[in-house]
Amino acid sequence: MASNNFQPKPEHKFTFGLWTVGNRGRDPFGDATRATISPTRIVQRLSELGAYGVNLHDNDLIPIDASASERDRIVSEFKKALDDSGMKVPMATTNLFYDAVFKDGAFTSNDARVRLYALQKTMRSMDLGAELGAKIYVFWGGREGAEVDAAKDAREALKWNREALDFLCEYSIDQGYGYKFALEAKPNEPRGDIYLPTTGAMLGFIATLDHPDMVGVNPEVGHEQMSGLNFYHAVAQALEAGKLFHIDLNDQKGPRFDQDLRFGSESIKNLFFLVKLLEESGYEGPRHFDAHSYRSENEDGVWVFAAGCMRNYLIFKEKARQFNEDAEIQALLKEIHAAAPEDSELLGRYSRAKAEKIKTLQLDRTHLAAKPLPYERLDQLTIDLLLGVR
Ligand code: GCO
Ligand code: MN
Ligand code: MN
Fold this sequence. Notes:
The protein has 16 helices and ten strands. It has about 400 residues and is an alpha/beta fold. The radius of gyration is 23 Å and the shape is globular. It binds D-gluconic acid and manganese (II) ion (2 copies). One manganese (II) ion binds near residues 140, 184, 220, 248 and 290.
């Protein structure tokens, strides 16, 4: 363990949103508990901690009512901070939830002029992201939902959502931005119900778009856990579909409000398997932390939080290496996965000959059911390893 100090480096591709370390501790019951940290300071401090880059919503950087000259001044200051530190902006997104205009949705608002405003705001934000070098564009439709289903036909909402994404894919192509879109699901909060509530629902929706190849998903740990789902499974499905374009890493204590906790602070076993999966899958995208520090922290605590997210990821990565090199664990896995070559050959793609053969096989189900599966031992070895007693 001494040989690994878990020091984050840009090559690990760790990123944070300006809104994450910039979170001031506001919640529905109380106001900010810490001061604003400027975007340029965020860039500088994260780079000192070993991060690769920062991501942003348009209004994390530029106030919604900024003049054109103010905008340009802010962008050039920000670009200078990026250049000075070597930090990147791999992902950009639009704030389509904060302003009152989005109270009934953005792309799915019942008001066509609000839908137009959402398109306008997103195109301007895509221009900004492209100027900063972003190649991934995230869509999190926090207000795309409903409390009163009588007011909106959910099929109509899906149609509007699809039209907006198709329109914006064309805009990216037309401008030569080369964006990949990543859709982020969440079951509720701030809306009573948000449309397309899970990563699985997003994957189904993507297949109905005009440019499905341009569009993938941005799963978030806490959002799947809010629905009681297994995040490792959701990410596996996205990877297997070639659709993991971005990922929001954080943590959560089970199904309740969105907590955005420090990565790896709660769901240790599930997130160990997640990191193992990401590292072994060839996923090359950013490891983005969409989390924030406890409300009880001051700015110093925010940097402890940020360092902790990256450190926990690297600890899980090291544990995955140990898991793969552990002779006892690997022997158990070999035993569990053992198969006769003639059986393996019969599985897989259909042929009439195979079907005939399978129908005549002598398969003794009582014998098959009696085969012991050493899962208790395997899981306990995993726990021993994760708790550091192995
Ligand atoms: C949330 C979301 C957001 C999005 C962000 C980028 O629950 O607040 O996770 O943080 O990820 O808007 O799209
Ligand atoms: Mn969240
Ligand atoms: Mn998120």
